[in-house]
Design a protein that fits this description.
This is Amine oxidase domain-containing protein. By secondary structure, this protein is α+β, with helices and mostly antiparallel strands. The protein has two domains: about 230 residues, FAD/NAD(P)-binding domain (3-Layer(bba) Sandwich); about 240 residues, Alpha-Beta Complex (Polyamine Oxidase, Chain A, domain 2). About 35% of the residues lie in helices and about 15% in strands. Strands 5-14-15-16-13-17 form a six-stranded mixed beta sheet. Strands 9-8-7-11 form a four-stranded mixed beta sheet, with no helix packed on it. It has a three-stranded antiparallel beta sheet with strand order 3-6-4, covered by helices on one side. Helix 1 packs across helix 7. The longest helix is centred in the N-terminal third of the chain and has 24 residues. It binds 2-acetamido-2-deoxy-beta-D-glucopyranose (3 copies). The site of one 2-acetamido-2-deoxy-beta-D-glucopyranose (NAG) has 3 residues, from loops.
Length: about 500
């Protein structure tokens, strides 16, 4: 995501400046999508995306506009949602939709409550307790209540952490601009290319050079035209800039405060510490055929599509071996339900929190696609995909042809994780986010400006859209500081939240 941010900042500044050297665009890691399509990894002849898959919120979303302009295909995947009980049985559709409705209404209420009652909610309260109270007011049977609590766990896939750890006080910071989530069927590739265009043609981009130090002394004053920021990289090269936009992931900032000389301001360091970093991972598993489709040879018939499972949730499985202290609920999206030519007989599993960490650690030292790697991932996934309709253990169609898992938690350039979140204990998350954005004035004072998903407007935190907005914001701030243009602040996305309008 960091590449996006610097690119959107650069694009923005480009429009108003002729001097492109204003923005430093040193890529933080070897996995930059610009250097090679390596963030699209090849999964035996099909391209998958290790990075973002979704566009969160559609209205007024700049990423959605870019998706349209680049003819990318983004949609709400069609098909049936299925839910499997802890015993591995298909849950009756009527019950499933009843509890789904309850959970989704309660999430909306929790957003609203979090927004309106923030002052009065203890920082120690988790979203889970809000749900437990809501459940007490229903006439659900014990079994239904239990299912609701199980289903709530899947909110973790959005947050990148267990729901028990999600702060109620700051739950509204997890809101998106609206309720529509679109899957980018054609992958983010063309969107990213579009955003990167200006930077790729005008900027000097250096890959495979990790930043090892940033020297930014205080400016001598507003009129200090000699002030510069110096960045040293792992190749021993030094670069100097007038202004520096830093888009490193929050997780990287947490681990590398020592890079900055003099040190970052105390309140900024505290906010970097206060906001937590998520653990979302994904696993793609490809089959010779989408065996879970009723008629895999005729995936285009729209009446059939409605009947195909597109999304499966496996609630707290008692049938899958796992560490007793780790919630093992899983969910997967069927990429076979995407429109042609993007449909593929692949399931995309999302893991989060302690389970995500457990899986990543199991494959940490294994070569992707090696026998040992495949075996570890297969033994994790088989209990789940083998419970989808149409599974037949003897059939070659039901034997995966390729598996690929992300390992963001083992990637120090990704900050060993996914994106920011707000866990129980955090006292003033909204102030912390504002602090991460402003850097406690370090931009004006020392020429360092921050961007990235963790510095986004509240509705954009943790998303590509937010990362994009944050780049525009940083670009504007620099322009404003340099007196380069009249900035119309109406154009900037503000911090208003949808739940405040209800
Ligand atoms: C917080 O609680 C107090 C006392 O019960 C109440 O007066 C106040 O309105 C509450 N604040 C909000 C934002 O509801
Ligand atoms: C990040 O990942 C690297 C590489 O796997 C590992 O050596 C390091 O300990 C991790 N750091 C944290 C804070 O998890
Ligand atoms: C970070 O958290 C600490 C205590 O939890 C708090 O005192 C501090 O004000 C927070 N930082 C900001 C900028 O809000």
């Amino acid at each position: 995501m960091r590449d996006w941010v610097s690119n959107s900042a650069a694009r923005f500044v480009r429009r108003r400046l002729t001097a492109i050297w204003l923005i430093c665009m040193i890529s933080m890691g070897p996995q930059s999508p610009l250097s090679s399509p390596s963030s699209c990894l090849e999964l035996k002849c099909l391209i998958v995306y290790r990075g973002p898959n979704w566009i969160h919120g559609v209205s007024g979303n700049p990423i959605m506009s870019i998706a349209q302009a680049t003819k990318s295909v983004a949609l709400d995947p069609e098909g049936k949602m299925i839910m499997l009980s802890p015993e591995g049985h298909l849950i009756d559709e009527e019950i499933a939709s009843k509890i789904r409705e309850f959970v989704s209404e309660s999430v909306a209420e929790a957003f609203q409550y979090s927004n309106q009652q923030k002052e009065n909610i203890s920082a120690k309260t988790s979203v889970l307790s809000f749900f437990q109270e809501k459940l007490d007011d229903t006439d659900f049977s014990d079994a239904e209540e239990q299912l609701c609590l199980e289903l709530l766990q899947f909110e973790g896939a959005g947050i990148g952490e267990s729901i028990e750890r999600q702060s109620l006080k700051f739950f509204s910071l997890e809101e998106h601009p609206d309720q529509d989530d679109y899957f980018v069927a054609s992958t983010y590739q063309r969107i990213l290319e579009h955003i990167a265009e200006a930077a790729k043609s005008h900027a000097d981009i250096r890959f495979k050079e990790a930043v090892v130090s940033v020297h930014a002394a205080e400016r001598g004053g507003n009129q200090d035209h000699t002030h510069q920021v110096t960045v040293k990289t792992s190749t021993g090269t030094s670069y100097t800039f007038d202004e520096l936009v830093i888009t490193c992931p929050l997780g990287w900032l947490k681990q590398n405060p020592g890079v900055f000389h003099p040190p970052l301001p105390g309140p900024l360091l505290q906010s970097i510490h206060n906001v937590s970093y998520g653990r979302l991972e994904k696993i793609y598993v490809k089959f010779p055929q989408a065996f879970w489709h009723i008629n895999p040879n005729n995936p285009d018939a729209s009446s059939v599509i409605q009947e195909q499972p597109v999304f499966a949730q496996f609630l707290s499985p008692t049938y899958a071996e796992h560490p007793v202290d780790i919630v093992w609920s899983q969910e997967c999206l069927s990429l076979a339900s995407l429109p042609a030519p993007h449909a593929q007989p692949t399931l995309l599993f999302y893991t989060w929190g302690p389970c995500g960490t457990e899986i990543v650690n199991r494959i940490a030292d294994l070569m992707p696609h090696s026998r040992a790697y495949n075996e570890v991932l297969l033994s994790f996934l088989r209990p789940f995909f083998s419970r989808l309709p149409g599974y037949n253990p003897g059939s070659p169609e039901c034997t995966p042809s390729s598996i690929l898992a992300t390992k963001w938690q083992l990637d120090p350039y990704a900050g060993n994780g996914s994106y920011c979140n707000f866990q129980v204990g955090i006292e003033e998350a909204d102030r912390d986010i504002k602090m991460l954005r402003s850097g406690d004035g370090i931009g004006q004072k020392r020429g360092i400006w921050f961007a990235g998903e963790h510095t986004a407007p509240f509705v954009g935190l943790g998303t590509t859209t937010g990362a994009y907005w944050s780049g525009e914001r940083a670009g504007r701030e620099i322009c404003e500081w340099l007196g380069l243009s009249q900035v119309d602040s109406n154009e900037l996305r503000d911090d208003s939240l949808p739940s405040a309008r209800q």
